[in-house]
Amino acid sequence: MITLALTSLFGLILPALVSGQCSSDFSTFTASDGFTYGYKVILQDMLNYFEAADLCYAQGAQVASIHSADENNFIFSLSANLLNQCQNNNSVCAQRVSRSTASGLSLDQLLRSFWLGMHRLQFVPYYNATVDCIWSDGTICDYGRFDGVATATQNVTPWSTGNPSGSNNSAASPGSGYTEDCVEISTGGLWNDISCYHKLGGVICKKNCTNPCPSAAAPTTTTSASKLTTTLSTATNTTASSGGGYVCGSDGWQWTHYKGAGQAYAYKLFKTNGSYWQLNDICYEYCASPCSVETQEENQYIQSIISNSSASNGRRKRSTSTDSCTYTGMHRYQINPPNGSIGCSCDDGSSCSYGNGDTTTTTSSTSTTKAATTTTKLASTSTTKLATTTKPSTTIKTTTFVSTSTSGPINPWAPGCPATISTGLGDTNGYGNKNCIGYDANGKWMDRACERPGTGVICKKSCIPPA
């Protein structure tokens, strides 16, 4: 294993508390929106998308979005040297398939490319050609957006020939095969859509150096039959007078202080329909992440939030619905498909060991990456920002939570969950693998494909208790 540079990932904090300056290992430029953005290329072989996103979170960043040809060229020039090493040097990145044919060479290079942050959902499920597109940092899809059905010989900038295909066997029959809802950058700066569980060679991370957490804006959401749109409202995170930081409850989020861990967190449940990828962006725009769950105490607290939001007059009845899913930021996946063990990670880098005792945990807080960057300036690029509306309610909800547990650990999973290699990791109705975890209507965990529409997301961010 070649180490190009070592970057410690200990001391991870949530995006809301990241420093306002990009360190020298980020390459920066000032965009036309007035913000300065920083980029880092992390070369670490055998990363699925969730592991790659975890590495970017540990850097106070997101998997990169791209909004212009200039920005795409900048990112490719930044990554070209490392990408070439990964794709052509087996001591840097392992060879995936035989290169004895031209098609084999092309496939091997694609599987040794770098992750971008676009999530393009088409043929989800397999008979639905409608496109939903989102970037992991909450910005809209503009540059590179394609809403049609690609043909095998089609060339759409900046996609490689025949892409975006939407699934891995669309050349034979549109929508057939596995869903391809993640995107990579490969040879020549061209993009390819690919299933998120694939193990690539690295990731491009990006963050806003001027305003790393867009705390001046908070979103409201509306849904239609096939789209979820997000608009921003003017709101600010109140800071403590003793030197800064987000104060618990200052924006109306419910919060609690876990005395055993010495840490306070704020939570908010957003009840709106959408895939995990769409709902994830709501949390990010609030300087938060889809929630991790680290202890039974925290799990019970989150269950109480979901239960209270679902209760109407009288006692809430146990639900038999299989459609309700409140997404979290926890993920399960196969470490090395097709026969590898199951691993887990959390979007905010927290431990995923609670409730996942059968896994090999791979969170960024316990790992070290190989990272390298090139300092380059790009004159200007435009990142489209979402429109603003009105200021939301700021009613403060303060909670001191007391665990009701009187015995040993309680299994958080719903009957039949989680999926295992023996039971099969694929979801039903043409969706992908069960890589995301959410709460069902009864407050139990369920694993399902991230592409499958859910009914909400619960967001989490660390906070400072008010004086």
- Name of the CATH superfamily of the largest domain: Mannose-Binding Protein A, subunit A
Uncertain runs with pLDDT below 50, 5 residues or more? 1-20, 214-243, 312-321, 364-407
- Principal-axis shape: globular
Q: If classified by CATH, what would the architecture of the largest domain be?
A: Roll
The secondary-structure class comes to: alpha+beta
Structural domain tally: 2
Average pLDDT figure: 77
Please report the distance between the alpha carbons of the first and last residues.
49 Å
* E-strand count: 24
CATH topology call of the largest domain? Mannose-Binding Protein A, Chain A
CATH top level of the largest domain is Alpha Beta
The total of helices stands at 5
Strand content: 25-35%
Helix proportion: 10-25%
Give the H and E element order.
EEEHEHHEEEEEEEEEEHEHEEEEEEEEE
Radius of gyration: 21 Å
Largest beta-sheet characterization: 10 strands, mixed
Short description:
By secondary structure, this protein is of the alpha+beta class. It contains five helices and 24 strands.
Walkthrough of the structure:
The chain is of the alpha+beta class and 467 residues long. The protein has two domains: 6-209 and 366-372, Mannose-Binding Protein A, subunit A (Mannose-Binding Protein A, Chain A), CATH 3.10.100; 217-331 and 387-463, Roll (Mannose-Binding Protein A, Chain A). It contains five helices and 24 strands. Strands 13, 14, 15, 16, 17, 18, 21, 22, 23 and 24 form a ten-stranded mixed sheet that branches. Strands 1, 2, 3, 4, 5, 8, 9, 10 and 19 form a nine-stranded mixed sheet that branches. The protein has a three-stranded mixed sheet with strand order 11-12-20. Strand 8 and strand 9 form a beta hairpin. The longest helix is centred in the N-terminal third of the chain and has 20 residues, at 69-88. The termini are far apart. Mean pLDDT is 77; it is low at 1-20, 214-243, 312-321 and 364-407.
